[in-house]
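Re: that backbone. Tokens:
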């Protein structure tokens, strides 16, 4: 019985001293990249990531430029990391310690968009975000 109480106390302590976003949040998030027609080269922050359609993992901190290139045309969009309200709400419910941990570690971060689409043709290239 004492052993079960000790294990429970350890889990309770670990949960109390860490934030939800830090424990469960992701440091990267997927972004789905598509184009019409498909087969456009995709660059994220200048690094070639493949051809559309592709899903890439993007860091949830900072701003990122996504560029599409197809048949001499280019289009771009941007995604930015930001604070996710879901993690903030959980931390407020759990108390001051998780709130402080996630605020300090950036555990609340997410991306403002999860998809970007480029359309090429007629001498014009356009990118849109979802």
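Recovered sequence:
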């Amino acid at each position: 019985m004492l052993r079960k109480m000790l294990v429970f106390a350890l889990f309770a302590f670990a949960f109390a001293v860490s934030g939800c976003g830090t424990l469960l949040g992701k440091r990267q998030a997927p972004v789905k990249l598509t184009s019409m027609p498909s087969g456009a080269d995709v660059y994220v922050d200048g690094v070639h990531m493949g051809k559309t359609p592709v899903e890439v993992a993007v860091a949830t901190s900072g701003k990122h430029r996504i560029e599409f290139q197809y048949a001499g045309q280019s289009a771009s969009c941007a995604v930015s990391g930001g604070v996710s309200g879901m993690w903030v709400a959980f931390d407020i419910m759990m108390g001051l310690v998780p709130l402080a941990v996630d605020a300090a570690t950036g555990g609340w971060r997410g991306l403002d968009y999860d998809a970007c689409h480029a359309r090429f043709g007629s001498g014009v290239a356009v990118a849109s975000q979802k």
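Confidence is low (pLDDT under 50) at residues 21-25. The CA atoms of residues 27 and 106 lie 9 Å apart.
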